[in-house]
Write a structure and sequence with these properties.
Layout lengths: L22 E2 L65 E4 L2 E2 L4 E2 L5 E3 L2 H9 L14 E8 L5 E8 L3 H17 L5 E6 L3 E7 L3 E9 L2 E7 L14
Parallel strand pairs: 1-2
Antiparallel strand pairs: 2-6, 3-4, 5-6, 6-7, 7-11, 8-9, 9-10, 10-11
Organism: Tessaracoccus flavescens
Keywords: Signal
Protein name: PknH-like extracellular domain-containing protein
């Protein structure tokens, strides 16, 4: 997740039903980058706090190590049922590459660098980035939608709920700073942001904090309904 800046939001706890069987595709989805303006929105009074962090955040000082073997299909305590998926979108195994930071393992989920995924997801580029807690693990999933359009879900696991909420608060602050240029807000409460991202085309996106996890999901469809993609806490 290198989610949005380089790829790229509780959790789909689908223990009561088997996960869809992944299908193979020949190549990975394009890694989106912030594009042209979208329409501004305003947050409700009940929205999560967006108070700026006093200390600036620095990008990772080193690139992630080049993958030399297939990525694990779990990360920390995270498994495939902890990665959000959109209704009508199919979990899809992809081969990965060195440029994408992972090599495929035959499933639709793969462990990725927690540090780099967290930074790529939160560094939206519209405001100075405040310091944020670092996750301890990150698991990414790849989806295929209508006409083979790509989608990406990433779940970040933190040391505790306070750290996860701190990251979510800074993410919301960054998204708010981008309203009218790169983000469009549809709804926001204390736990979940739902909106759109302008990545040259409009992508639908949702990000939520659930306990010690932050769940992110973005799909290449402007009108996808992601309001229930992350179950309520």
């Amino acid at each position: 997740m290198r989610f949005v800046a380089a790829a790229l939001g509780a959790v789909v706890l689908a223990g009561c039903a088997p996960a869809p069987t992944p299908t193979e595709t020949p190549s990975a989805p394009p890694r989106p980058t912030v594009g042209v303006p979208s329409q501004p929105s305003s947050a409700p009074a009940s929205a999560a706090s967006t108070t700026p962090s006093p200390e600036p955040a620095l990008p990772p000082q080193e690139p992630p190590p080049a993958p030399v073997s297939p990525a694990p299909s779990t990360a920390g305590s995270l498994g495939e049922t902890d990665v959000a998926r959109a209704e009508g979108w199919t979990p899809t195994a992809r081969p990965g590459s060195s440029e994408e930071g992972y090599l495929g393992n035959g499933t639709w989920v793969h462990a990725v660098s927690a540090e780099h995924s967290a930074y790529a997801a939160i560094a939206l580029g519209c405001a100075d980035l405040g310091a944020y807690p670092q996750p301890t693990a990150a698991l990414e999933g790849t989806l295929a939608g209508p006409e083979g359009r790509p989608g990406v879900g990433v779940t970040l696991e933190f040391a505790g709920a306070d750290e996860a909420r701190g990251y979510f608060g800074e993410w919301v602050r960054q998204a708010k700073a981008c309203e009218g240029t790169a983000t469009e807000l549809l709804s926001l409460d204390a736990d979940t942001w739902v909106g759109r991202r302008n990545l040259e085309t409009l992508w639908s996106e949702t990000v939520g904090v659930r306990g010690e996890r932050v769940v992110l999901l973005i799909v290449d469809q402007a009108d996808a309904d992601l309001s229930g993609a992350i179950p309520a806490p």
